[in-house]
Amino acid sequence: MPTALTFKVLRLLSDARFHSGPALAARLGASAGSIAAALSDIEGLGVELTRTPGLGYRLDEPIDWLDTHQILRHLGLLAAKFELTVLDMAASTNTTLLERAAQDLPSGSVIVAELQTAGRGRRGRTWHTGLGGALTFSLLWRFEQGAGVLAGLGPAVGVALVRALRNLGVEDAALKWPNDVLVRHQKIAGTLIEIQGDVLGPSFAVIGVGINQRLGLATRQRIDQAVTDLHSAGVRADRNRVLAEMLTHLGTVLEDFSAAGFGPLRKEWESLHVYAGRRVALRLPDGSVEYGTAAGVGDDGALLMQTDSGLRRFHSGEVSLRPVSLAPERRSHG
Prior knowledge:
Blueprint: H1 4-12, H2 21-28, H3 32-38, E1 49-52, E2 56-59, H4 68-75, E3 83-90, H5 93-101, E4 109-116, E5 119-120, E6 126-127, E7 134-143, H6 153-167, E8 173-176, E9 180-183, E10 186-197, E11 203-212, H7 217-221, H8 239-260, H9 266-272, E12 279-283, E13 289-297, E14 303-307, E15 310-314, E16 320-323
Parallel strand pairs: 3-4
Antiparallel strand pairs: 1-2, 4-7, 5-6, 7-11, 8-9, 9-10, 10-11, 12-13, 12-16, 13-14, 14-15
């Protein structure tokens, strides 16, 4: 597990030059042995390090570090809407922000981590990242409405992410219900939204976002689905610019959602759905499979599917959606 010293050493190595252990130790007020220990398992973070006797240590590729001042500069006048905290490491930015939300953090609070060690996805999945290879952040947004009114928040967030990606140059970014962002049918980003509050309000949401920036081979091998990253999609913007773009569009969509709900965003979401009008299969919690045609979403974000038994509604968290060509042969209705 990396330590605070690990991050300090890696920042010094970001000039892509060789640095000896004693030289690093002198600059950081540590021992050469502690420097070696701090870098002992660095490959597990998705970072490649060259160790050469007589020369010392050198990063094979520079790390795309987060920088608060750069993020705020990219946000410009919108920076006042957000309260930004950059952490070297967090088990889960969502968990951290949920804990802090109870301490009256303002709406617009953001936690972004250089490295997330136990990121959570939908249905208990782990979000795998390497240091500098992904952008993982969580945004707190407070609402006057009750928690039950926020059912369409997930797809609304999806619209914001696609708008941001397209502004960054990813013209073929699309959505897969309920919470994935795809490029050429490969996952590039996902969300995890956790809502708390009173039935009649107020309430708040912690919106967790994970975006693949530049995945290394080791990280790709740990992921059990087709994935891509911003670098492969032609985006050369650093993580600071990407985060500012995401926050800009999230802020706009969340303000609109607070005023009018998901309804006004519904047509835009449907135009972005990768399976719109296609035959799909839904795997239900009991293991059965429902077949039909994707027919859009409701104002509450529920998937609408035309089946042999009529138009049916399915809610986020209940099912796994796949194109029918990848679905199992067993059919089940009801």
